[in-house]
Amino acid sequence: MSAPWDRRSTSEQQRVAELALGRWLPLAATAAPMWSRRMAAESLDPRELTTLADLERLAPVREIDLLADASGAAGAVLQPTEDQIKAYGGGELVRQVVGGIRREGAAGKRRVVLQEYQPVDLRRAGADRGTLIASARSDLDRLNRVGARAAAVLGLGDRDVLLGAVPTGATLAAARATHLAQGASITALHARG
To answer: Distance between the two ends of the chain, CA-based, in angstroms?
Structure first.
């Protein structure tokens, strides 16, 4: 279906979400050491995670659990494998990787991948600001495109002013308001307190 996300029916949104979860949840659970260990302790196979209902079977993870786990710590950035880049990286990234390999050998591939996934924006969030969120340039571009789409749906333009009644610190609400404003080229003002 090619309709924008906000114009799709609830059942269509749920169907697409289930398809995405079925593909990504097993990969994420396998790639993250903390989740691999937790699932093994609960005798769960990552390949069984294909729906929201399956995801809800997992025991909740608290922020303190993330911070206590050294190998799955909050600041960890996962780098994709070669197969993942081919499958999900898009044609331009694949061309850059191939070009890097031709110019510099294996070091060229590593440089291109690091450049693509290198965090350019680091924010602390969560209780006591203990979780570090790292975003690459492509992540921020996607967030701003989503913000632009949200602004278009809301009828906001570049002459509007967005007043966000959210704390100025690193909160999810503040990040949403910021990317909505950046995507729509409007001024974001955040009320303090």
So the answer is: 43
Residue-wise pLDDT for 52-93, tens only, equals 788 777 777 665 666 666 554 544 445 667 777 777 777 888
- For residue 180, count CB atoms less than 10 angstroms from its CB and return exposed for 0-12, middle for 13-18, buried for 19 or more: buried
Residue 192, pLDDT > 60, answer: no
Of the candidates 163, 74, 162, 68, the residue with the CA atom closest to the CA atom of residue 123: 74
- In 3-state terms, what secondary structure has residue 129? helix
Do 45 and 35 touch, CB atoms closer than 8 A? no
Question: Distance between CA atoms of 12 and 103, rounded to whole angstroms?
Answer: 45
184 burial level (CB within 10 Å; 0-12, 13-18, 19+): buried
Task: Tell me the pLDDT band of 118, cut-offs 50, 70 and 90.
Answer: confident
Residue with token string 């993250």: 32
What is the helix, strand, coil percentage profile of the chain, to 5?
60, 10, 30
Q: What is the pTM for the complete model shown?
A: 0.49
Spatial separation of the C-alpha atoms in residues 144 and 135, rounded to whole Å? 12
Are the C-beta atoms of residues 35 and 72 closer than 8 Å to each other?
A: yes
Judge whether 166 and 133 are in contact, CB under 8 Å.
no
Instruction: Return the bridge partners of 136, or none.
Output: 119
pLDDT at residue 1 in the model: 47
Are β-strands 131-136 and 119-125 bridged in parallel, bridged antiparallel, or unpaired? antiparallel
